[in-house]
TrEMBL record:
Belongs to the TrpA family. Keywords: Amino-acid biosynthesis, Aromatic amino acid biosynthesis, Lyase, Tryptophan biosynthesis. NCBIfam families: trpA. This is Tryptophan synthase alpha chain. The active site is at residues 49, 60. The alpha subunit is responsible for the aldol cleavage of indoleglycerol phosphate to indole and glyceraldehyde 3-phosphate. It comes from Sphingomonas parva. SUPFAM superfamilies: Ribulose-phoshate binding barrel (SSF51366). It holds the Pfam family Trp_syntA. CDD domains: Tryptophan_synthase_alpha (cd04724).
Length: 265
């Protein structure tokens, strides 16, 4: 059983949704980043999604782009990120960890080498945000060869034929975008996803997890009420890190605790 499977089963038995926390690795620096990862778990995050600093993160809004710029300014590399995750995995053997990245990062190292390095670091899944499903087969093959779950993206306007293939090819969880556009912390998020969730369920897709714009406890509660198995919050956490220099861990720990509480049905 994968860490994702074990997590979803445990939470379902407890009548809870999963709370996933996203951060940019190496922001504001590697040492602080390690402490932030621990604080996310201490606050109650059920799963982590982490970014590798990249110069052109096309799916990310200004808050996460700025975090990538800060980490790159510190000279943070993919190798540094894998080392950070290796250390995290030694401290937290059960928490699912996913990497959200971009094709350039994967291809620069070599697909097979990238997924092998991810596996060696204890990574459970990889989502390559700018690779559409029709270009995904080489990435899917490399992921499976390394026993890393390929997470795929679904949206309310994704064609049914694509959702059928996504359900067959994806693993770990299904990343369901809560709204169009790029990542960001929204004031209001509306979850008109019943048809999408019904189709994914009918095709046997991995559990749906909502992302993009999830920034408040009421967003979390609404997503779970709408049928999501979990949510991922990113920009709100990354902004807290930027706004609380010297107190990053404490700030994110408290935020996560409040968001996690909202997953309880």
């Amino acid at each position: 059983m994968s860490r994702y499977d074990a997590m979803f089963r445990r939470l379902d038995a407890q009548r809870e949704g999963a709370f996933g926390a996203f951060v940019m690795l190496g922001d504001p620096d590697l040492e602080t980043s390690a402490g932030i990862l621990d604080a996310l778990v201490e606050g109650g995050a059920d799963m982590l999604e982490v970014g590798i600093p990249f110069s052109d993160p096309v799916a990310d809004g200004p808050v996460i782009q700025a975090a990538a710029v800060r980490a790159l300014g510190r000279g943070v590399t993919p190798a540094d990120c894998f080392a950070l995750l290796t250390d995290f995995r030694a401290r937290h053997p059960e928490i699912p960890v996913g990497v959200l990245t971009y094709a350039n990062i994967v291809v620069a190292r070599g697909r097979e080498a990238f997924y092998a390095a991810a596996r060696a670091a204890g990574v459970d899944s990889v989502l390559v945000a700018d690779v559409p499903l029709f270009e995904a087969p080489p990435y899917l093959e490399a992921a499976r060869a390394a026993a890393v779950a390929p997470v795929l993206i679904a949206a309310p306007n994704t064609p049914e034929q694509t959702l059928r293939r996504l359900a067959r090819e994806g693993a770990g969880y299904t990343y369901c975008v809560a709204r169009s556009g790029v990542t960001g912390a929204d004031e209001e998020v509306r979850f008109a996803h019943s048809q999408l969730l019904g189709t994914l369920r009918a095709f046997g897709a991995p559990p749906p997890v909502f992302g993009f714009g999830i920034s408040r406890p009421d967003h979390v509660a609404s997503a779970i009420e709408a049928g999501a198995a979990g949510v991922i919050s990113g920009s709100a956490i990354v902004r807290l890190i930027a706004d609380n220099r010297g107190g990053e861990a404490e700030a994110v720990r408290g935020f996560v605790a409040g968001m996690k509480a909202a997953t309880r049905r």
